[in-house]
Amino acid sequence: MGQSQSAAAFSPNNDLEPGTYRIIHDESNKALQIQDEDKQSLIISGRDSQGSDRQVTKDHWFLLRSGDGYIFKHCQHGSYISISFQSDYPYPILATQYPTSWVIFTKEGSSRLECVIATDKAPARVISLNTGYKKSVTDGDRLHLTKLLKNDKERWRLERIGDATGDAEETRLLRQQLKIVKTELVEDKSRLKIVEEQLAANLEELETTQIEFSKRVSELEEQREAVDQTNKELSAALEEASEKDTRIIEKDREISEKDESIRIMEMKLAEKDRIIAQLKEVARGSNMQQPRSTSHSPQRQAIYSNRVSPSPKPTLAAIAQSTQSRTQSDGRTALDTKLAELGWDSD
């Protein structure tokens, strides 16, 4: 192959038929594939065994239309050739789940589909082989996005294998997934039915619990009202008992005062009785001495009478009555004097 080609020799080709292709590096004749150890790394390696669209191999790619360009989808892994902008320029070309649309420039007049794969119709950036400092291409060399340099590292060749575009496989996979989803849906419906039944039972139990709870609340309210009434009655009873205790204390005080007054009166009465007894003894003694002091011979009485008064001579009865009255008067005078000393009346 020549070392450089004129850009005018390549032009955008929108007439490529979708199908299954190998992407061959034109200079080394090595196929583009996904690395076994790293499913994102794109490398070139020796051709895989020849196969048809029914025999999918790891260097087979589906070519699919995308607007004015194409996308490359790996037949086995379903990943797409895309650009990683997470690294510095030149950007690595990787296999990811996010497709990138490519513009394919084919060599005019070539039946071998020699091409340059670019990002746009300029073409400003193209897929190029990164050989590092090596001059020759070896297995395992990776891809990156570079400016168009018009050298052999940028040139590729598309080898058509068949018409398959992955639609049948995708349909089969979709049907398989649909079957799985339907099975899961049936299982989910079964589980949902169980959950709904459990939920209905829980709701019924909850309703019963709420009714029971309302009854309990009503009972507790009635009990609270009864307790409040009992507390009121108890408070009234305690207040009444307190008033009674106050009255009892007052009565006890009054009784104590009366007992003290009675005790004093009893002491006074006892003293009075003692004095009266003494006075009675004095009076009794005076009565016993009266005959000796008043009995005189008739002669002495006559003489005495004549000395005192020339009045008529009293009779014996009058003399006795006068003597008795004087004796009683003397006794009463002594009694009244003693009672007056004690602050009592003789009556």
Description:
With 347 residues, this protein is of the alpha+beta class. It has three helices and 13 strands, in the order E-E-E-E-E-E-E-E-E-E-E-E-E-H-H-H. It has helices at 167-294, 298-308, 316-342; strands at 10-12, 19-25, 30-34, 42-45, 61-66, 69-74, 80-83, 91-96, 103-107, 114-118, 125-130, 142-147, 156-162. Strands 1, 2, 3, 4, 5, 6, 9, 10 and 13 form a nine-stranded antiparallel beta sheet that branches. A four-stranded antiparallel beta sheet has the order 7-8-12-11, with no helix packed on it. Helix 1 (167-294) runs antiparallel to helix 3. The relative contact order is 0.08. Residues 283-334 are annotated as: Disordered.
Strand-helix topology:
Elements: E1 10-12, E2 19-25, E3 30-34, E4 42-45, E5 61-66, E6 69-74, E7 80-83, E8 91-96, E9 103-107, E10 114-118, E11 125-130, E12 142-147, E13 156-162, H1 167-294, H2 298-308, H3 316-342
Antiparallel strand pairs: 1-9, 2-3, 2-5, 2-13, 3-4, 5-6, 7-8, 8-12, 9-10, 10-13, 11-12
Helix pairs in contact: 1-3
Categorize the overall geometry.
rod-shaped
Order of helices and strands: EEEEEEEEEEEEEHHH
Number of helices: 3
Q: Segments where pLDDT lies below 50 for 5+ residues?
A: 1-7
Helix content: 40-55%
Find the count of extended strands (DSSP E, 2+ residues).
13
Rg over alpha carbons: 74 Å
Query: For the report, how would you describe the main beta sheet?
Result: 9 strands, antiparallel
The SS-based structural class is alpha+beta
Classify the beta-strand content into a percent band.
15-25%
Distance between the termini: 174 Å
